[in-house]
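FW: tagging you since you asked about this chain on Friday. Here's the raw sequence from the shared folder, copied in full. Didn't touch anything.
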Amino acid sequence: MKQFLISTAMLTITATRVFSQDSTAAKEPGKLTFSGYAEVYYSYDFNNPGNHVKPPFIYSYNRHNEVNLNLGFVKANYTSDRVRGNIAIMAGTYAQYNMASEAELLRHVYEANAGLRIGKGLWVDAGIMPSHIGFESAIGKDCYTLTRSIMADNTPYYEAGVKITWNPNEQWTLAAMYLNGWQRIQRVDGNQTPAFGTQVTFKPNDKVTLNYSTFIGNDKPDSARQMRYFNDLYGTFSIGDKCTLVAGIDYGLEQAAKGSSDLNTWYSPILIARYALTDKVALAGRVEHFNDKHGVIINTGAANGFQTTGYSLNLDVKPMDNVLFRIEGKYYDSKDAIFVKDDELKTGNVSVTTSLSFWF
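HL: got it, structure written out here
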């Protein structure tokens, strides 16, 4: 008993010292910043859809032959040694189409999260956050291409849940998440299945970034539960001062039916190359393929499911530090005739998109 009391006292003293040190650090003033972003676009689909909506697997820059806002938001960010948080309210066609399944009051929430540091390099964040999957975000200026890839538009842009992140050093970042679902703020009705995610990022130097992310969960009511197992792997590589390459692949599996041992699979490789002609002008090209023959993510009803290759080339001009003009040509080539033109099904789809973004 004496030894137990001594040990307890020592632990109490140690914990008091740690808490005291953290409390001292917490008294340092935090920093509150405000920012904003707006990206206006015009896109012309040469298949000329009468309803002004481009193919249904496209969720960004998807309005045809009209000037529109893809994404605009205002954001407040707070950071301190122990606490951090973000609140951002958005509008645009990105929100209209990506948030269509959410409650109306939530469709304009881009971010709403709070975080607490619980140890050295160890944070816990909760709320609505950007997705841990993929290298493309909803913010166009942060992506190498004007429009998003098929893989980006058909994997989560956002997620809701709890995330724990550990940075043991400058090279490694490890994270694990408890999530409400596959790009869900609110759970699907009748779904009580927990969903989880992981992320490992390795930066051996300032020229290379390697990332591996996963998702495990069910995106249907429990009465029709089909477990999904998803993997996202990519790397970014800077070659000299002007060239950057991005190579990645997604690979997913989902139960064919509830309780079944059969799995439907899909995959999507991608390669992007960007070359800076000057400090203000750059070119970027993309080759991608999305193979979902079972229609797990993109269901076309075609004989071969969705098997489509995409090619794009864009020119970026940055006249000012906070202004970016872009123009992109894109071509989709499908194994089956899934694109509609003049009431006929075609295997190809061509579009041209321009955008102008501004931020502060």
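FW: The two ends are 63 Å apart (CA to CA).
HL: agreed, and Residues 1-26 have pLDDT under 50 and may be disordered.
FW: great, closing this out.
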